[in-house]
Amino acid sequence: MSRLTVVGIGPGDRDDMTIGADKALRECSLIVGYPVYTELVKPWYPDKEYFTTPMTRETERCRAALDAAKEGKDVCLVCSGDSGIYGMAALVYELRGESNDPEIRIIPGLTAACSGAALLGAPLTHDFAVISLSDRLTSWELIEKRLEKAAEADLSIVLYNPASKGRPDHLKNACDILLRVLPESRPCAIARNIGRDEENSRILTLKELREAPVDMFCTVFIGNAMTRVISGRLITPRGYRNV
User: Fold this and answer.
1) Is the full-model pTM beyond 0.90?
2) Residue 105 domain-assigned?
3) In what side-by-side order are the strands of the sheet with 233-235?
4) Residues 117 and 105 in one domain
5) Helix/strand/coil (H, E, C) string of 17-34?
6) What is the CATH number of the domain that holds 165?
7) Per-residue pLDDT tens for 69-98?
């Protein structure tokens, strides 16, 4: 039976790619993906055939991967981070529908919440929520509700897609929502270009975060009531010392 493998490639550094992801990419003949992601893996797998589509053409990309697999090619569809967290895994299953051809295999990857947390210290040791600020597929009203509930539940929060050219004020608006519940002094952080060239991070307060410049290469962390800065690192204790 033909097979399509949906691969989470992690943040971009090959050291952070799983052994399973590397094995799948070495064995396949065709790699499909968003151009930014295929360019990340191309130096390591230069002999492969590549097919890309730009942003907003995810359905076309997944259909092409499915069709190529049905034709007998060993296909990998690459996603940044994890293939099932804001990735293409669900869409591939939707497009294949009730058919069993091609076989679909999902290989997980290191999502930005995990890799960014490691860069910053240990901000996610306790319960946390991951919320995307992109309203291209989710209404802003629903995003606002999720932000409010996460803050009320005292969850640490990770924000994906905090801003873009088309929505430069989304992080500022998100901070205004969070500030209805959380104090201005709440420790926060920004991780940018995780696992890639020019990787950097910054720890700041929620008040400062509201005015901070961010883009699509940033992942934003908001601490819970226990989060604090220790030796320049963002730490959220779980309470082990109290047991």
Assistant:
1) yes
2) yes
3) 121-122, 233-235, 228-230
4) no
5) CCHHHHHHHHHCCEEEEC
6) 3.30.950.10
7) 999 999 999 999 999 999 999 999 999 999
